Amino acid sequence: xxxHAPRTSESTQQLREDLNQLTQTIEELVNATADxxxxxxxxxxxxxxKRLKDTRERLETRGERIYDEARDSVTQQADACDRYVHDNPxxxxxxxxxxxxxxxxxxxRR
Length: 110
Known about the structure:
By secondary structure, this protein is mainly alpha-helical.
């Protein structure tokens, strides 16, 4: 799990840079509309559209990668839990009973 931290930090930094670039381009586009130079507006609009498209593609790719990593992690944890229950059935029954008692007490207080 510790190996995910540097990648997550790196992805977060890249996302910030992407969003900053997109924000700058959109601000330039808004500022350009103040003067009536049509060629300037068209150029900035094209740049904004390209950056928006690039940022969206990067976000989709990162989202898919994060989803895959989370799914794999949850699957590994579920498998580990399943192995533990099979290796220690009586301990698992005791833990389940204890959790059931606590939940029952909490529900009974209402």
